[in-house]
Amino acid sequence: MVVVHSFKASIRPPQRPSITGTTIMTFTKPLSCFLAASMALALQCTPALAANTQSPDADAVKGVTEEFAADLAKGDLKAISRLYTDDAKLLPPNADPISGRAAILAYFEKTLRPDLVGGATFDDYEIYGGEASAISLSQIRMLDPKGQVIEHGKQTIVLLKQDGKWKIHRDMWSDNSPTSP
Questions:
Q1: Are 101 and 108 in contact (CB under 8 A)?
Q2: Dihedral through CA 63, CA 69, CA 74, CA 78, nearest 10?
């Protein structure tokens, strides 16, 4: 009698380590405690951090918008364009961004012509930042050539310090007039 043995090759997939609820809790509980403690500390420090965000160079940052107003009163749009970085962007309301100093000058030559705009005033400044960058928030009033307010709004500008001088890098504003239905 002949006995034939049949052998099947049994290939078992590699065993993966078993992860149990206990293993997960051992890892995640300390992590969640650490994150909770970090958040608590961050929330406690927020008022102190906010109080210290005033730009150390606030007068110089404010001076950029004051220079803008002085140049606008003289009708010197080229001088205004030099207040911007080479890769600056204007972000006008209801319009696409205007990129680069040359495009900004062209935009101003259409919108800030001396026959349309006689000047601007800025006030109610909030200035935040550090040694190399700053943000300036202000109220703006655009004036006609006779000195009458033709627009009242708000402006947010991001400034960068280049070669020791503050330059406008991003400029966004909006009018406070009510929107029409």
A1: no
A2: 80
- pTM of the shown model: 0.68
The continuous run of DSSP H or E covering 61 comes out as helix 58-74
Q: Which of 82, 76, 141 is nearest to 114 (CA)?
A: 76
Walk across the sheet containing 133-143 and list its strands.
Answer: 98-99, 84-91, 165-175, 149-162, 133-143, 119-129
Give the model's pLDDT for residue 180: 72
122: left (phi over 0), alpha (psi -120 to 50) or beta: beta
Name the residue among 157, 177, 159 with its Cα closest to residue 167: 159
pLDDT score recorded for residue 143: 93
Instruction: Report, as ranges of residue numbers, the positions in the chain whose pLDDT lies below 70.
Output: 1-56
